[in-house]
Structures are given as structure tokens and as C-alpha cells.
Design brief:
The structure is a single chain. The protein has 4 helices and 5 strands; from the N terminus they run βααββββαα. It is an alpha+beta fold. The protein starts with 5 loop residues before the first strand and ends with a helix. The model has no long low-confidence stretch (mean pLDDT about 85).
């Protein structure tokens, strides 16, 4: 399979690496989406595709040659061991915590503990 018709921005490449998923899933999502909708920013499109229990979302825009430029992408739920999973777990822990538990979590985050 060739992925030459996709152009990934540096941000999108960083997101793929940090989120540990492949350009193949991005390609499949753009070319065979379950649904599409206009993106939040003018001229962008949001592509969504389910892969088993995971949902991949890709934000893209067309350039002057009508090629898809991938701006960002993510997978939900985040893959185990990724920064996104750690952030999601921290968010959930914060919202489940008591008042004093939230204070403790904020202090830990501020000091990088």
C-alpha cells in the first residue's frame, strides 16, 4: 500500500510517534472513513474510523494540488503506555478525587512528582 497521497505535517508525525500508531491507520481513516464532518477550523475535515474497540480521528485539509495534508490524529482509547493514556488516567483520577485529593494531585503535578 502506498501512502504517497498523504502529506503529514511535523505535528502529525510527532503525534503518530507519541501515540504509537501507524500511518496505515491514518490512510485507512482518510480513504475509508466511517464518517466525516467539517473540522473546527475553516477548510479542515475530520475523518473518523473504528478499528475494533479503537476509534481513530484524523484532521486534514486539502492543499492546492488537492492532496490531503494531515494536521493531527489520535486514537481513542489511547494505546497502553502512551502519554495520552497517562493524561487520561490523571484526568480521571483528578475528577474522582475528593477536595483534598485534588489539592494533593495539583501539588504533585506542579512539582513533577
Amino acid at each position: 500500500m502506498h501512502y504517497d497521497d498523504l502529506i503529514l505535517t511535523n505535528h502529525a508525525r510527532e503525534r503518530l510517534e507519541a501515540r504509537s500508531f501507524s500511518v496505515e491507520k491514518v490512510w485507512d481513516t482518510v480513504h475509508r472513513p466511517d464518517k466525516t464532518r467539517p473540522g473546527k477550523k475553516n477548510g479542515t475535515t475530520e475523518f473518523v474510523r473504528r478499528f475494533g474497540k479503537s476509534v481513530v480521528t484524523v484532521i486534514a485539509t486539502r492543499n492546492e494540488k488537492l492532496e490531503w495534508v494531515i494536521l493531527s490524529c489520535w486514537i481513542d482509547p489511547p494505546l497502553p503506555g502512551t502519554e495520552d493514556e497517562r493524561k487520561r488516567n490523571a484526568y480521571r483520577a483528578y475528577h474522582r478525587a475528593s477536595f483534598w485529593g485534588k489539592i494533593r494531585l495539583i501539588i504533585k503535578e506542579q512539582f513533577g512528582l
